[in-house]
Write a structure and sequence with these properties.
Chain B: It is a multi-pass membrane protein. Chain B: It is found in: Cell membrane. The structure holds two protein chains of two kinds. Chain A is an alpha+beta fold. Chain A folds into two domains: 224 residues, P-loop containing nucleotide triphosphate hydrolases (Rossmann fold, 3-Layer(aba) Sandwich), CATH 3.40.50.300; 148 residues, OB fold (Dihydrolipoamide Acetyltransferase, E2P). Chain A contains 13 helices and 21 strands. By secondary structure, chain B is mainly alpha-helical. Chain B has a domain of 169 residues: MetI-like (MetI-like fold). In chain B, 68% of the residues lie in helices and 0% in strands. Classes of the chains: A alpha+beta, B mainly alpha. The interface between A and B is medium-sized, with 33 and 27 residues. Bound molecules: adenosine-5'-triphosphate and magnesium ion (MG). The site of magnesium ion has 4 residues of chain A, from helix 1. Adenosine-5'-triphosphate binds next to helix 1 of chain A.
């Protein structure tokens, strides 16, 4: 068990492509850190640098306080689940799991005990004598997992370990990994695409974009105080709505009318002509079901409800609107980069399940202005969050001060907000 | 195979087709075997099966008059083919490993050259080789045959092996290193077991090519010092010079087929395709 520290880690591949750029990250002993980001953003590269399979172009990698840049993988004593499992096809499941133990020269009895312990945990007992080729995807994934947990490593590294499982098994394995990690208390770095995994598993989540670290924060902070447009759009499903607005002395002109932000959410808008207002689907509500006690914290506006999706516990309404061409292009770019569901110029609004707004009508919606993020379309920065940050540190500076800017929306001050002390 | 989906009629058609192909392919072999058991007087009888089954021809080549000719040829064939196979597999393994793993200038050139050599007609280089070998003293020696055999076996070995090596999931080497293996351990415990079937397949192919060669064997040898079996068959005579040697030739042909059959049966289980299945997803 050990802490892992990444200092200014950069990776440039042989063809000149910079896959990881100046990443700083402190992973505490026993902590569970999630790496998320769109495909090709450098998550696997980062993981492979930690484990020692990829040379580090510049920067320092410290494990347990010791610099390991030049150490071979075997001397780092980390265990890893590869994105494509990498099972040994000529060995049985038993021998696959036993492989690290045999290399470490454990006695047969000890090997047997540990393999059975792992196989029992992963429900692989009846497959121990089979070859990987004859297993299902989920079973292979569990074998890879077994091989990783069977020995006492300093840390676990998982590269999308659940990506090939069906929804039910994924849920089970997610719970299993979480339990396992808590029980063993082993430092874990976990790469995933999956929103739910990212939000539920980790102590902290690190968001990567094109090799650059955008924000490292607890799942709650990430959700309530994203530092920039990218993180805001990446975390959450359905994604955050971005509404263009023009600024004129304190008032915001939006496609839905003139809005005035409450004191707590009003950053300094001097020098900004156009901003994007970020509002999560659940910040909206059917105005007829909003209790009077909170109604005053928001605005009510008329919206043309195009489509309604009723899910039982809630319903989603789709509200198309007109936006200036350049904003629309920028949103389309972001959408492409995030690989997300359509974020066209339409609002996705989550309504109470009891709301009876009919499709294809104009309805009165209410938006909680206390939960709005003001984003700068030019730099992508979240002005609401950055307001407390002194100018100068940019998006990658983590979530420091996040708790100070957001009042109602961030009830807990972030325990992890000490990310990236400036060097 | 999913037999269940094939209807009965389809299945019987497949059976008939199979039997026809096998009969067509094996008829000459059956005929050779039959001839090898005939007496010289029986050869002209125009009957498929011998009237009386005799071991005379086998005795002749293994213990009788043709013994010297045949046994020395057998020794030459076995020795030369094994050596040529060994050398070509070792060289091809290195070459294919480099081609599959490394990016170096000239990689394509090597592959294209190998292909070009493989399609070059043997007969057109035999005559120059004959002259050259006589001048430098390689004529009628083992190396004199091994070297041209390498030109036949190396290209195909390099091609099959590099194709085989390319489909080995090399991440496994890295996985092994993460699991605590040294580079050498990762190679020996993971890569070697995966590569072995490919190497065996290639070795058997090479051996057959060398074993079956006739053109080089007949042109580049003149005595028992190096003449391999396919060439030696032409020099067989009967018990007296008036006796048709066909029986002895047939017996020799049967004898030289046996090692090939044995080899295939022996290594059949080694030539497993798709052994790398299941290592990675998808
Ligand atoms: N060996 C390599 N040589 C050159 N570029 C590479 C190499 N491996 C990866 N890259 C590039 O580095 C970037 C990051 O790759 P990486 O595999 O780390 O992405 P990822 O975040 O793991 O994506 P995914 O979620 O699809 O697995 C990609 O743009 C990729 O093209
Ligand atoms: Mg990856």
């Amino acid at each position: 068990m050990a802490d892992i520290t990444l200092k200014n880690i950069t990776k440039q591949y042989g063809d000149g492509y910079r896959a990881v750029r100046d990443v700083n990250l402190d992973i505490a002993d026993g902590e569970f850190v999630i790496l998320v980001g769109p495909s090709g953003c450098g998550k696997s590269t980062l993981l492979r640098m930690i484990v020692g399979l990829e040379d580090i172009t510049s920067g320092d990698m410290l494990i347990g306080g010791e610099r390991v840049n030049e150490k071979a993988p075997r001397d780092r004593n980390l265990s890893m689940v590869f994105q494509n499992y990498a099972l040994y096809p000529h060995l049985t499941v038993y021998e696959n799991i036993a492989f690290p133990l045999r290399l470490a020269k454990f006695g047969d009895a000890e090997v047997d005990r540990r393999v059975h312990q792992a196989s029992e945990l992963l429900e692989l007992d009846e497959h121990l004598q089979r070859k990987p080729a004859n297993l299902s995807g989920g079973q292979r994934q569990r074998v890879a997992m077994g091989r990783a947990i069977v020995r006492q490593a300093q840390a676990f590294l998982f590269d999308e370990p659940l990506s090939n499982l069906d929804a039910k098994l994924r849920g089970q394995m997610r719970a299993e990994i979480s339990r396992l990690q808590k029980r063993l208390g082993i430092t874990t770095v976990y790469v995933t695409h999956d929103q739910i995994e990212a939000m539920t598993l980790g102590d902290r989540v690190a968001v990567l974009r094109k090799g650059e670290l955008q924000q490292v924060a607890t799942p709650r902070d990430l959700y309530t105080s994203p530092v920039n447009l990218f993180v805001a759009g990446f975390i959450g499903s359905p994604p955050m709505n971005f509404i263009p607005a023009t600024v004129s002395d304190g008032e915001l002109h939006t496609p839905f009318g003139e809005w005035r932000l409450p004191e707590s959410r009003r950053p300094d808008l001097g020098g900004h002509d156009i901003v994007l207002l970020g509002a999560r689907p659940e910040s909206f509500e059917d105005s007829s079901v909003v209790p009077d006690t909170i109604r005053e914290h928001g605005v009510v506006f008329d919206a043309n409800v195009d489509v309604i999706e009723w899910l039982g516990n809630e319903q989603y309404a789709y509200v198309p609107y007109e936006a200036p061409e350049d904003i629309r292009a920028q949103l389309a770019d972001l959408e492409r980069e995030l690989d997300s569901e359509a974020m066209r110029t339409q609002l996705v609004v989550s309504l109470d399940a009891t709301s009876r707004i009919p499709e294809g009508t104009t309805a009165e919606l209410w938006l909680d202005l206390r939960k709005i993020h003001v984003l700068d379309p030019a730099t992508g920065r979240n002005l609401s969050v950055a307001a407390a940050d002194a100018a100068g540190s940019d998006g990658a500076a983590g979530s420091e001060g996040a708790g100070a800017t957001s009042d109602a929306s961030a009830p807990e001050p972030s325990p992890a907000a000490d990310e990236n002390p400036s060097p | 195979m999913d037999e269940g989906k094939v209807s009965r009629r389809d299945r019987s058609l497949w059976w008939i087709a199979g039997v026809v192909v096998i009969a067509y392919a094996l008829f000459p072999v059956a005929w050779i075997v039959s001839v090898s058991f005939k007496t010289p007087s029986d050869l002209g009888s125009n009957r498929f099966l011998p009237t009386t089954w005799v071991w005379e021809n086998y005795e002749n080549i293994l213990a009788g008059g043709a013994q010297d000719l045949f046994l020395s040829a057998l020794r030459n064939s076995v020795g030369i083919s094994l050596l040529a196979t060994f050398i070509s597999v070792v060289l091809a393994t290195f070459a294919a490993y480099a081609i599959a793993r490394l990016d170096f200038p000239g990689k394509r050139v090597i592959l294209t050259t190998a292909l070009a050599v493989a399609i070059f007609p043997v007969i057109s280089i035999v005559t120059p080789l004959f002259n050259l070998w006589r001048n430098i003293g390689l004529y009628d020696t083992w190396p004199g045959l091994i070297i041209p055999y390498l030109s036949l076996t190396l290209p195909i070995s390099i091609w099959t092996l590099s194709a085989f090596f390319r489909q080995i999931p090399w991440e496994l080497e890295q996985a092994a290193q993460v699991d605590g293996a040294t580079t050498w351990q990762a190679f020996r415990k993971v890569i070697v077991p995966l590569a072995t079937p490919g190497v065996f397949t290639t070795a058997i192919l090479s051996f057959f090519i060398a074993w079956n060669d006739f053109v080089y064997g007949i042109s580049l040898t003149s005595t028992e010092a190096a003449r391999p079996v396919p060439a030696a068959l032409a020099f067989f005579t009967g018990a007296s010079q008036f006796v048709d040697p066909a029986g002895a030739i047939a017996a020799a042909a049967v004898v030289v087929t046996i090692p090939v059959v044995v080899l295939v049966l022996l290594f059949q289980r080694r030539i497993v395709s798709g052994l790398t299945q299941g290592a990675v997803k998808g």
